[in-house]
């Protein structure tokens, strides 16, 4: 399964080395296939796009974390809220993607990164194509962010 061009360009511009993996619900002997159930929530990155009257920004966090939106707004002096599904769909399609990509460099929005990401040995990011993940090791995580 090929990665979306926009995700590949983002990774290449960052100069990071990555592994492209196919997500599967069943076991496989292929080194490029990973079972969804084997990925710990603390290793799977999600990207949340927020907005207010000032503009959009994003938060990168692992699936086992939550955003304290009240604290974030107080800290930044902003009135952020999640963008609506219609806006997410437009954003995804503007990059030629099927789903929201987990790579923060793609949108060029300012990004807040959870500390768990910076401490991880390896992480899996949504590629923007259903069933395809991007795997980064610690060195490349630090380089990307």
- Could you name the CATH topology? YbaK protein
Largest sheet: 8 strands, mixed
- Total strand segments: 8
Order of helices and strands: HEEEEHEHEHEEH
The mean pLDDT is 85
Helix content percent band: 25-40%
Shape descriptor reads globular
**What is the structural class?**
alpha/beta
Task: Give descriptors for this structure.
single chain, 145 residues, alpha/beta, YbaK protein, eight-stranded mixed beta sheet, 5 helices, globular
Describe the model.
The chain is of the alpha/beta class and 145 residues long. The chain has a single domain, classed as Alpha-Beta Complex (YbaK protein). Helices cover 28% and strands 28% of the residues. It is built from 5 helices and 8 strands. Strands 1, 2, 3, 4, 5, 6, 7 and 8 form an 8-stranded mixed beta sheet that branches. A hairpin with a 4-residue loop joins strand 3 (44-51) and strand 4 (56-62). The longest helix has 10 residues, at 5-14. It is globular. The mean pLDDT is 85.
Q: Brief overview, please?
A:
The protein is α/β, with parallel strands linked by helices and 145 residues long. The chain has one domain: YbaK/aminoacyl-tRNA synthetase-associated domain (YbaK protein, Alpha-Beta Complex), CATH 3.90.960.10.
């Amino acid at each position: 399964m090929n990665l979306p061009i926009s995700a590949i360009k983002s990774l290449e511009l960052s100069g990071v080395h990555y592994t492209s993996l196919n997500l599967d619900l069943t076991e496989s002997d292929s080194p490029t296939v990973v079972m969804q159930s084997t990925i710990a929530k603390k290793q799977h990155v999600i990207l949340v796009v927020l907005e207010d009257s000032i503009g959009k920004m994003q938060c990168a966090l692992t699936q086992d974390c939550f955003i304290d939106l009240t604290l974030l707004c107080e800290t930044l002096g902003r009135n952020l809220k999640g963008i609506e599904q219609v806006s997410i769909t437009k954003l995804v399609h503007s990059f030629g993607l099927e789903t929201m990509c987990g790579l923060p460099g793609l949108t060029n929005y300012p990004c807040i990164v959870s500390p768990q990401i910076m401490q991880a040995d390896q992480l899996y990011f949504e590629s923007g194509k259903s069933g395809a993940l991007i795997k980064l090791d610690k060195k490349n995580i630090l380089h990307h962010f």
